[in-house]
Each structure stands twice: as C-alpha cells, then as structure tokens.
Amino acid sequence: MSANFEAKKAVVQEITEKIKASKSVVFVDYNKLTVKEVSELRNKCKQADCEYKVYKNTLVRKALNDLGFKDFDADLNGPTAVAFGADETTAAKVMVAAAKDYDQKITLKSAFVDNSYVDKAGVKALASMPSREELVAKMLGSMQAPMSNFAGVLNNLVAGIVRVLNGIAQQKG
C-alpha cells in the first residue's frame, strides 16, 4: 500500500474518533473567510470547548459512511469546515454566531447530533437552546425554590408556636 493511502486511512480514523468522542459535529462552508478570521474562529471555538478543523470532504464522507451515516454526502461538497463540540449545543452556537459576526462569510450546512442528521434549520434551533448545564441549573433552581419556601413556612410555624407559648407563659406568670 502506498504511503499516501496509509496517511489518508490515518486521517479517516482520526475523524472517526473525533466524531465518536463529540456530542455534536457541525459542518459549515467557510469559503470567504480570511486567514486571520479563520484563526479568530479557531480561538473562539477553543474558548467554547469545541474544535474547528478543515478536512477533505472525501475523508469526512468516508468516516461518516464507515459509521453508517450517508445523509451527509450532499453537504460534503465545496469548502467544508467541521466544528466538533463537547456538548449538543456549543458548536452550533459558535458557528451560528460566527455566521453573523463574519457577515455571512460562513454558511451553515448541517450537523451530526445524537447519531442523527440535523439540517441547517435544526442547527439554528440547536444554537438557540440552552446548554445542558444551563438546563440543569434551571431545574435545580426550580426544585430549590419550593424547598426553601417550605423551610420558611416551617420556620414561621415554629416561631408562631413559640410566640403563642411565650404569650401564654407571660399571662400565667
């Protein structure tokens, strides 16, 4: 086998591993970005705990096909960058924001989330959703509120009983 074939095989394996390790994978067209803008975008991704990479479409297609997903074949044409996200929403949020920030130089294509194909509209919907951590914090906050209200009621009940007993003691005393 040629060295070139082995190198491509290693890249396909790398892409496959990144797809498996990521909660979301967003595909975008980055054709009109300058080198400086690509560097800025990579830094934004890194700060958001996702990774922005450019691979050959054929290698990404091969990795997805090896995983059993053929829905992405139409999207993997032209210049394509891939954002690998550690959660379901972050990569979509960064790429949707980048599409706005860079004055439509980035075009959303699709995403791979929860072993499913997500179209362009779905990527925008993902970007508008709160992250898992935000949802957990909201849920815990809503669970905590009734408990603290209940504790306040119990505290007031005990304080009321103490006041009544204190009043009775003063009357008899």
Question: Mean pLDDT score, rounded?
Answer: 85
- The total number of structural domains is 2
Per DSSP E runs of 2 or more residues, the count of β-strands stands at 5
**CATH C-level name of the largest domain:** Alpha Beta
Strand order within the widest beta sheet:
2-3-1-4-5
Could you name the CATH homologous superfamily of the largest domain?
A: Ribosomal protein L10, N-terminal RNA-binding domain
Q: Biggest β-sheet, characterized?
A: 5 strands, antiparallel
Shape: elongated
Structural class: alpha+beta
Stretches with pLDDT under 50, minimum 5 residues: none
Distance between the termini: 103 Å
Helical region count?
Answer: 6
Percent of sequence in beta strands: 15-25%
In the CATH scheme, what's the topology name of the largest domain?
Alpha-Beta Plaits
CATH architecture of the largest domain: 2-Layer Sandwich
SSE series: HEHEHEHEEHH
Amount of helix: 55-70%
Radius of gyration: 27 Å
> What's the quaternary structure here?
single chain
